[in-house]
Amino acid sequence: MESIFITGAASGIGRQTAALFAAKGWRVGLADTNGAAAAALAGELGANAKAYTVNVTDLDSIKTALSDFAGPNGSLKAIFNSAGLLEMKPFAEADLARLHAVFDVNVKGVINTTSAALPYLERHGDARIITMGSVSGIYGIPDLAVYSSSKFAVRGLTEALNVELEGKGIWVCDLMVAYVKTPMVMDAASKAKSVDLLGVNVTPEQVAETVLKAVDGRQVHWFVTPEDAGVATQVDSMPWESRRDFVKQITGY
Fold first, then answer.
1. Is there a catalytic annotation at residue 147?
2. What CATH number does the domain containing 29 carry?
3. What are the angstrom distances between the C-alpha of 250 and each of 84, 196, 201, 229?
4. What is the pLDDT of residue 221?
5. Which three-class secondary structure state does DSSP give residue 49?
């Protein structure tokens, strides 16, 4: 039976991905800061799901959870770095502590979880590290400056580790997607102008299905929808200075 360890598993994309993999017969490790919600989900998913209270910025909590889930000398087919924070405010109006938290979870959390999981993934062979990227990692998005920069970091980390770790039998990739209908976006106290201009057209189910493809595929960047891929292609085809004007247009600036 294959195993996947998912961070941010108690809600949104992580929750839907956990449900899909459990339905496919996988063992699923559910890691979340909300341990009670993760435990409730494990109860719904059955005996092959196990919940852990984990803060991805705390390396020791990740190591403890992974050791318990995989076993000290066990293996994992995949990890899904789904945990993330979002802040949608102009940089000058945002709380600095919140911006630091966004970067810590979205970048340092991925670094921590990836590092802690490497021995288990390497023992499996043909393993996968899958991380939530974003189309905001293609060109910086106003009102999401720090979130966007965190996704640039995820993209760079993904591309570099994809090359570094291939020889260890680990394929590293990310998911590229625009706004997804999750509580993180829909229930946000403050929303970017681009939310209304672009709409929220992707469901967590679509993202989960893309993760399912990624556990056996060998793409570096997985676009969840053709529209997401189209935006990336359009931006990449533009001269650098023209990209700025395009982003101003789609973000209301």
1. yes
2. 3.40.50.720
3. 23, 10, 15, 16
4. 97
5. strand
